[in-house]
Design a protein that fits this description.
transport; MetI-like; cell membrane; membrane; 83% helix; MetI-like fold; 14 helices; transmembrane helix; mainly alpha
């Protein structure tokens, strides 16, 4: 799959070869998110609310910020072909987001087709998140502490296990059966057992998260080392390399793309295990907050926590992907 950078370069070349009418169409498409945003803002402010439904200006400011962002993106693209190519590529999706928000607002706040308390309009969700921001931030902190504690423990153990199993046939003999046994079973399946055995809910949740990460990292590391060309090891041995050097200088660098991919997959597994563990046992965190607010029918706060979870996990995975691209930049340049 081509990355965004390659797509952008291709789009720049296409833009330069297009006719005048095609270029005008591209500018209209690039400007469409701003136009859809303005239409949505007018709908929110001018269309009367249904019944006793009320709204504040909070969501209007939020939409205004989004409109300003995409408009400055468009202005920047007028003098920079690379920025314009990116905006042209992303503009249909941005427009769809504004259309989706407008449709949801119309079905809830404006017409009442989707009723409270199950479907609060976005203005209610934003205000609920702001009103409970201190508690939500504390839950985010506790969730991240739990997430990264389990993630790093699982990643370190998985890396060690994967290296030993991938490089040593005797270790692989003992590890492979456990990989086949635990592989098809989601780590969250063990929550009822672990929560009873563990000395604390936090330690039990850490174990569940670490277990899923361990499997992903071990499998990816082991596979990466197995795929290393044996000629590299033979050449290194001929030059007098020791076993530790074969691992650190040959096996690990060659298996690095697989290892990093395993770390990203492990984070996805960790995020899933985190939410399930928090909902079932842990006494703090975003998953616990969602269950708590749902039990009191506070759906606005529940949706606010869900949105924060999505944003948090997107940022975490984005950082890991950036790290992967930076570390193995040499591989992309070669290919």
């Amino acid at each position: 799959m081509e990355n965004v950078q390659n797509l952008t370069r291709e789009d720049i070349l296409k833009l330069e070869a297009k006719s005048k009418s095609e270029k005008i169409l591209d500018y209209i498409i690039a400007l469409s998110p701003t136009l859809f945003g303005i239409i949505h803002l007018l709908e929110y402010l001018l269309v009367p609310n249904y019944g006793i439904n009320k709204h504040t200006t909070t969501y209007a400011y939020f939409i205004g910020l989004l409109i300003t962002g995409v408009f400055f993106f468009f202005i920047g693209g007028l003098s920079n072909k690379k920025i314009f190519a990116k905006l042209r590529f992303k503009a249909p999706f941005y427009s769809f987001v504004f259309l989706l928000l407008m449709t949801y607002d119309y079905l809830t706040l404006k017409t009442g087709i989707l009723i409270l308390p199950y479907f609060p309009w976005v203005d209610l969700v934003i205000n609920a998140a702001w009103a409970d921001r201190v508690y939500l931030l504390d839950c985010v902190k506790n969730s991240l502490i739990l997430l990264f504690t389990g993630y790093f423990i699982g990643a370190i153990i998985g890396l060690v296990t994967g290296i030993l199993s991938g490089y040593n046939k005797k270790v692989h003999y003992w590890i492979a059966p456990f990989m086949k046994l635990l592989g098809p079973i989601p780590s969250t399946t063990w929550i009822p057992v672990v929560m009873v055995i563990a000395s604390s809910l936090f330690k039990g949740a850490v174990f569940i998260i670490a277990l899923g990460v361990w499997f992903s990292v071990t499998l990816a590391t082991m596979t990466g080392i197995h795929n290393v060309n044996n000629d590299y090891f033979d050449a290194a041995k001929t030059l007098g390399a020791k076993n530790t050097q074969l691992v650190t200088r040959i096996a690990l660098p060659a298996a690095l793309p697989n290892i990093l991919q395993g770390l990203i997959q492990g984070m996805s597994s960790a995020c899933t295990a985190l939410l399930v563990a928090e909902m079932l046992g842990v006494e703090s965190g975003l998953g616990w907050y969602i269950s708590w607010q749902k039990s009191w029918a506070e759906y606005s706060k529940m949706y606010a926590a869900i949105i924060i979870i999505c944003i948090t996990f997107i940022i975490v995975n984005w950082i890991l992907t950036k790290v992967k691209r930076t570390v193995i930049k040499w591989k992309e340049e070669v290919t």
